[in-house]
């Protein structure tokens, strides 16, 4: 019985280590589908908002202020940025790509592991947009 419990603990620890330490392929995550519309997804969310010349920079500051979030690639000056936000307990990574296209900002948030994010990415994006003054 102790052996089975020990093996189960080892599997859980190994899984948690993989989630936290697995390398990120920047080219895979720093991209966005061409045709994108405002929608919820089982593993993420998409939002499209109106933008002026300062919206991307303001949104970037809001996102960078989010706990456990860092820039994976890009910059406001490039017109596209991908961020990684990790969950507090297990460190699951979620990827958010933000791109300015003309007078719109397109935000594409998705999980890396699993099939459903239980609405976490939509709530995070909507919170950013509320802080930006674009939510409602």
What does this structure look like?
With 136 residues, the chain is of the alpha+beta class. The chain has one domain: TATA-Binding Protein, CATH 3.30.310. It contains 4 helices and 6 strands. Strands 1-2-6-5-4-3 form a 6-stranded antiparallel sheet, covered by helices on one side. Strand 5 and strand 6 form a beta hairpin. Helix 3 crosses helix 4. It is elongated and about 65 Å long. This is DUF1499 domain-containing protein. InterPro entries: DUF1499.
Short précis:
This is DUF1499 domain-containing protein. The protein is an alpha+beta fold and about 140 residues long.
Helices and strands, in order, run as HHEEHEEEEH
Strand content: 25-35%
The outline comes out as elongated
Largest sheet: 6 strands, antiparallel
- The CATH homologous superfamily name equals TATA-Binding Protein
Distance between the termini: 54 Å
Instruction: Assign a percent range to the helix content.
Output: 25-40%
Q: From the coordinates shown, what is the CATH architecture?
A: 2-Layer Sandwich
Number of domains: 1
Query: What's the rounded overall pLDDT mean?
Result: 89
Structural class based on helices, strands and sheet pairing: alpha+beta
**Do you know the CATH topology?**
TATA-Binding Protein
Oligomer: single chain
Instruction: Give the number of DSSP strands.
Output: 6
Alpha-carbon Rg, integer = 17 Å
* CATH class membership: Alpha Beta
What are its keywords?
6 strands; TATA-Binding Protein; elongated; alpha+beta; single chain; 136 residues
């Amino acid at each position: 019985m102790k052996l089975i419990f020990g093996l189960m603990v080892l599997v859980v620890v190994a899984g948690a280590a993989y989630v936290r330490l697995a390398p990120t392929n920047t080219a895979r995550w720093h991209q966005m589908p061409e045709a994108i519309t405002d929608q919820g997804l089982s593993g993420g969310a998409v939002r499209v908002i109106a933008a002026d010349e300062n919206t991307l920079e303001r949104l970037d500051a809001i996102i960078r202020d989010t706990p456990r979030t860092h820039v994976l690639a890009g910059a406001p000056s490039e017109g596209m940025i991908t961020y990684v936000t990790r969950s507090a307990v297990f460190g699951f990574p979620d990827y958010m790509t933000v791109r300015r296209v003309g007078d719109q900002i397109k935000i594409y948030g998705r999980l890396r592991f699993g099939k459903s994010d239980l609405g976490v990415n939509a709530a995070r994006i909507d919170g950013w947009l509320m802080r930006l003054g674009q939510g409602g």
